[in-house]
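Action item from last meeting closed. Structure (180 res):
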């Protein structure tokens, strides 16, 4: 891994969002035309409301499907680690924010405990990857990030459902490349 290591958005996650968008479109088609699930009972003045619902569901569902089809074909880069820098996605379309790799302190799995206690024990699960940076004013302490990424208090987290690689592989690759 001399050149670097990349983590991209999971295609499985994109496919799930496409299915959600398809549900929106199907709900609009059903209310507007087929009336298979929703009864065709009409009340006075409901035509305008029906038109708004059909338009809204079709537009929102189509936008979700189109954006996620793009991400399904070309998954966006969530994080890249090289010996020189660590970059991660910010904003709506995963625009890369670069930090110098020498400012990286540690890379670990982040684990959360379940809220439910069974026989006096709480279940612990791996939720993703946590990368901590030095508390230095030359880099921002928090940023608005893309889906599946959080960056706050100089700590970057990649959440497991969104990433296309195993969290343990990501941690070992980051440690190998940066030596931390």
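Sequence:
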């Amino acid at each position: 891994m001399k050149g670097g290591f990349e983590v991209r958005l999971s295609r499985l996650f994109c496919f799930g969002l496409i299915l959600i968008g398809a549900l929106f479109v199907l709900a609009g088609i059903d209310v507007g035309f087929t009336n298979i699930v929703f009864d065709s009972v009409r009340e006075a003045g409901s035509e305008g409301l029906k038109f708004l619902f059909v338009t809204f569901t079709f537009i929102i569902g189509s936008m979700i499907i189109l954006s996620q089809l793009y991400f399904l074909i070309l998954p966006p880069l969530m994080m890249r680690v090289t010996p020189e820098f660590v970059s991660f996605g910010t904003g709506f379309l995963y625009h890369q924010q670069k930090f110098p790799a020498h400012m990286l302190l540690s890379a670990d799995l982040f684990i959360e405990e379940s809220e439910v206690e069974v026989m006096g024990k709480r279940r612990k699960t791996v939720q993703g990857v946590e990368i901590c940076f030095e508390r230095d004013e030359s880099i921002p302490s928090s940023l608005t990030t893309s889906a599946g990424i959080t960056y706050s208090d100089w700590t970057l987290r990649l959440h497991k459902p969104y990433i296309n690689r195993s969290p343990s592989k990501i941690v070992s690759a980051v440690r190998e490349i940066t030596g931390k």
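Note appended to the action item: Residues 128 and 160 are 4 Å apart (CA to CA).
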